[in-house]
Amino acid sequence: MDEENMMQVIEVTEAAQLVFAGSGGAVINAVDSDGSNRIDAGSGNDTVLTGAGDRIFGGTGDDRFFIQTGGNNRITGGAGADQFWIANNGTVPITPNRVTDFTPGEDVLGLEGFGTDFSAVAIAQQGADTAVSVDGQALAILEGVEASDLSEANFALVDEGANGEPDLAALPAATPAPAFDTLTGIPFEVTGEGQQFAFGSADDLIDASGDTGANLLRGRFGNDTFILGRRDRIVGGGGDDRFFASVGGNNRIAGNAGADQFWIAVSDTPNRRNIIRDFTDGQDVIGIAGLGITFGDLAIQQLSGNRTRIGLNGGVLAILQNTEASSLTAADFAIV
After folding, report:
1. Residue 287 DSSP SS3
2. Which pLDDT belongs to residue 24?
3. Letter string b/e over residues 74-83, b meaning 16 or more CB atoms within 10 A of that residue's CB
4. What single DSSP character describes residue 21?
5. H or E segment to which residue 86 belongs
6. Mean pLDDT of 14-36
7. Chain-centre distance of CA 61, in angstroms?
8. DSSP assignment of 136-163, as one string?
9. Please, which residues have CB within 8 angstroms of residue 267's CB and are 6 or more apart in sequence?
10. Residue 193, exposed/middle/buried by CB under 10 A (0-12, 13-18, 19+)?
């Protein structure tokens, strides 16, 4: 059996959802999505068939992104040698897609069905970015890339049917991945380190999964959604907030007022445990999604200093400060 037929197959068909694929590699079919989704492919060598108007993260691994006709996606490949097939089947997307982290010499831009003559490809500087087009039709914007750094060596031009795009009809049936709705507000992406951000009264979507740590994020008011990165301090503020741990970990989280959800593992376990400073028994919820476990699989242990450790398979998912282990029951957890 070939590798793709052994992968998890995930279909994204709704709108404004937060989808986590997890580790191990997956085929993610977002062709029929209704847009405004945030799709996290997780670690592994993933294959993503894009829809329209989504935010897509490849994560760690050598990922492949196959652009369909919709366009207007924003794609981050993440670590690894990624392939961005920015036009396929001889058809250009309705709206150009944006690639945030194309790395010349490591990643590849692919065109399928437009012939193999590179002279049809145009590369033009647009401010700090580079625009790529074929036969005068815009295909993609490469953010932060100098046009002078690109040449034919950065491209793969192949005949129709030769790009390795998976045949969806031949793949196993799709399986559900953890998906959370509804995403509201204008997404704000945190990059870099050592910064401070304070948000207002709206329901904010704050994505720090790509940062490098030591940031302070304050949600203040509203029902905010945080996608966590690594080594940050996060304060939810007022409102019913949601916190989703990514693979980074080592964050310090305070929900503050409201009925908050602390998703300490979603489709994968964090590299380091996160610390929750103010879990409120009977009001807040600890969530675990996509790991195929039950409450009985967790190791809940009292530590000194009125702290509780939540472990799984010998690892540590989270430390709850100011919490007695004896006070935690299955009713405090959402495991899906």
Report:
1. strand
2. 79
3. bbbbbebebb
4. -
5. strand 83-87
6. 88
7. 13
8. TEEEEEETT--GGG--GGGEEEE-TT-S
9. 20, 21, 22, 23, 40, 42, 177, 178, 289, 290, 291
10. middle
Reference 48, options 16, 85, 100; nearest CA is: 85
**Sequence-distant (≥ 6) Cβ neighbours of residue 195 within 8 angstroms:** 215, 216
Burial (Cβ within 10 Å: 0-12, 13-18, ≥19) of residue 18: buried
CB–CB of 17/37 below 8 Å? yes
- Residue 250 CA to residue 228 CA, distance in Å, equals 10
Q: What amino acid is encoded at 162 in this protein?
A: A
DSSP calls for 229-243? -BS-EEE--SS--EE
CA–CA separation, 41 and 17 (whole Å): 14
- Domain residue limits, the chain: 4-170, 185-335
pTM as predicted:
0.85
Q: Between the CA atoms of 21, 224, 251 and 307, what dihedral angle is there, to the nearest 10 degrees?
A: -110
**One-letter amino acid identity for 328?**
L
Residue 178 identity (one-letter amino acid): P
pLDDT tens string 156-169: 999 988 898 888 77
Q: What's the pLDDT score for residue 182? A: 66
How far is it, in rounded angstroms, from Cα 286 to Cα 62?
A: 32
In the three-class reduction of DSSP (H, G, I as helix; E, B as strand; rest coil), residue 266 is classed as strand
Residues β-bridged to residue 287: 263, 334
Neighbours of 47 (CB within 10 A): 24
pLDDT digits (tens, 9 = 90+) for 177-213: 777 876 676 789 998 999 999 998 899 999 998 888 9
C-beta separation of 284 from 277 below 8 A: no
Contact 275, 252 (CB under 8 A): yes
Those residues whose C-beta lies under 8 Å from the C-beta of residue 97, and which sit 6 or more positions away, are: 50, 67, 71, 72, 73, 74, 75, 86, 139, 140, 141
